[in-house]
Fold this protein.
Amino acid sequence: MTKTPARRIRPEPQSLDPRAPVPLYFQLKERLKQQIADLMWKPDELMPSENELAAAYRVSVGTVKKALGELVRERILARRRGKGTFVTPPNFSLSFVSRFSPFGSEAGEARPIPGSQVLSTRVVAPPQQVAEILRLGRRESVVAITRVRTLYGLPFAVEDLFLPARIFRGFEKRDISRALLYPIYDAEYSTRIVRAEEFLEPRAAPAEAAGHLGLRAAAPVLYIERIAYTFGDRPVEYRQGYARGGRVRYRVELH
Amino acid sequence: MTKTPARRIRPEPQSLDPRAPVPLYFQLKERLKQQIADLMWKPDELMPSENELAAAYRVSVGTVKKALGELVRERILARRRGKGTFVTPPNFSLSFVSRFSPFGSEAGEARPIPGSQVLSTRVVAPPQQVAEILRLGRRESVVAITRVRTLYGLPFAVEDLFLPARIFRGFEKRDISRALLYPIYDAEYSTRIVRAEEFLEPRAAPAEAAGHLGLRAAAPVLYIERIAYTFGDRPVEYRQGYARGGRVRYRVELH
DNA sequence: CAGTGGTCTAGACCACAAG
DNA sequence: TTGTGGTCTAGACCACTGG
């Protein structure tokens, strides 16, 4: 009864404000979301139970249920009856990576993780267009990486990647030839990509890009730009590149 | 007190089963969804209030709130405090149509509805590839439409459209030059498009397509295929076509 | 004003997991 | 057995819309 089982509510939580214009369950939800982002509970870790949270924040269990339910729908938490509430580890492989599928592959099929071959890595002053898109200050520099992306060892795209050097300090020294980038941003630079947009256009391949892709100059290619955003719609990554056809095609799900 | 205000619960509802393995709020939600699909309440029409539903189905208001809340998240209903709960009219313009945005337009901006100019309309035996994709029987025919799609009067794509003639009987006689197609499928052919997938590749424009798009032959274009599905993942529309660059670009949101 | 949906409470009972 | 989350109830108070 009076024993205190492994308390998972670390500091004494600052209590919620019932007179605030925003409802209690929402305050609680945002509070928990922030604490999860701060790694107070790590991925796959057990959260406090409904009763513990209700007691700690001095609200009813129903209010806790509503807050947790919303976080479940946002895929931040997962709940298991009889066991508890757990922090969902971020999943990247399903969402952002690999919108290119090899020709002949089916819809539901597992897609291979693309590799890449880095052609150049520099820390430089950004081109003006890049500085505007990433909303960089006057003297901010960027990590600029040019790479060839491959699937089963075959090149399918060349790409320039730009990251604010302020956030991604030392990124230019990493080996990214086999890795997915967004998990690295998340784990090593505390930068979670939550949304991205891409713009596609047909273009004639510039000679250099054509060379990397095994095409003749001016062959038709997809020109692709990507802007990736972290929390608060802050742009933190910009890419531009060319993708060839034949070996892969670009797939979009519309809902 | 005893007056019966405009009853919006039409037939005496068959009551829910508290001993069923599926929860009451879920039964209620599915029941309402079915009734909305059957047009018991039409788009923009007022649903019964929480209290009315609770009384009619003999459950608590909390259970009704949960069922309605889920339907709101599915965008089937919209609730307005002080007014009531309304059926959401199906919205097509935001989801499927017009993934092409004019150059220079911003993310949140309203996009114009594209027009089209029909080049040919026929009811024919489908090419084998089309028959396979639409899973047509041996002797089934298709409505085949070729059209030029325009934005602000300027052509940006040419497209072949294939529909199973069995479902879309008489579709070839319609004027579709100014209309969005999916609302027509929905209203006139009882076929709601719920999902679609597109495949993109760079190609050199065939001479005829190039002519319609104001390009020289072999200019780089986007080759686009689309398969659209109705309930139960049944494919009911197939498109293939070419889109030019310069005037528009193809935009994809990644989540 | 009466009626609507939005929030919140306190409690009940259940199915499930794990010791 | 204890503790978990999942469902359901009955009631309260509030903010808002409309007559």
About this structure: The radius of gyration of chain B is 23 Å. Chain B is about 20% helix and 30% strand. Residues 18, 23-25, 59-63, 66, 80-84 of chain B lie near DNA strand D (CB under 10 Å from a C1'). The first strand of chain B starts at residue 77 and ends at 80.
